[in-house]
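I'd like us to work through together how a protein chain folds, taking it slowly. To get us started, please write out a protein record for me. Label the sequence line and the structure token line clearly, so we can match residues to local backbone shapes. Once you have written the record down, we can walk along the chain together.
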Amino acid sequence: MKKFKGTGVAIVTPFKNDSSIDFAGLGNIINHVISGGVNYIVAMGTTGESATLTKDEKKAVVSYVVETVNNRVPVVIGIGGNNTQDVINTIRYANFTGVDGILSVAPYYNKPNQRGLFQHFKAIATCSPVPVIIYNVPGRTCSNISSDTCLELAHECENIVAVKEASGDLTQIMKIIKGKPENFIVISGDDMMTIPIVAAGGSGVISVLANAFPAQCSDLVNHLQKGNYKSARELHFRFIEMIELLFIEGNPAGIKAILNSMNLCQNYLRLPLVPVSRPIYTRIQKAVEELNKKN
């Protein structure tokens, strides 16, 4: 699926100090990442704090994203959960105008076995009117989609077109790349793993860092796709400290602090998440200043 190759960005959901959604801030970020050359936008993912939004708020965010993007790049929306029927119902009643795909996370908390994971995603793919990207992130879900299960889904479910892989297991990821059908793509779900995954045959990244640095993240993937590994490494090494700061006190606390230091949105999260501590925020400010000097 060419729409989902290259650099995708898992956009944040900005909030105001009263915890309401800051749509102006969201618009700033959308225009910022598109101007920076990203290939597509992912809304309502983990980075978008979708777990703390009501159904009406999710609809409002998706509607605003679609309207603001205005067909400039493809849009993917997160629809997932650990109640398969509820996910199916959400898909059935969703408005997919202007939406190009679904990102659906592996069921969490229930800890299903591989057969349950296969049936869960098969049911979602069957009812979805748009292509499905499955999202494997065991560090959050305690549920790893094995390479065998991923490949079975890729070969048997035509509407499942990609996997966002954030297991950190390169052996597993390489097995998927080796055995996948030609029209199925493997996407890095971790900024730190973009180089090895794309070098092994992956198709790009769904990035958190690209919220703040879309041009550099896009350049990195473009270098990799052209085989310019030296240039890609140089870019990646420049951002290693920043990537670590993104996650040292949790996502999206890190990226929201960076965006706030760049005056793109306010530094508010919804509980149970909280902003980064003052020492980390100070480190982030210094890192942003250093990167700006180099750029």
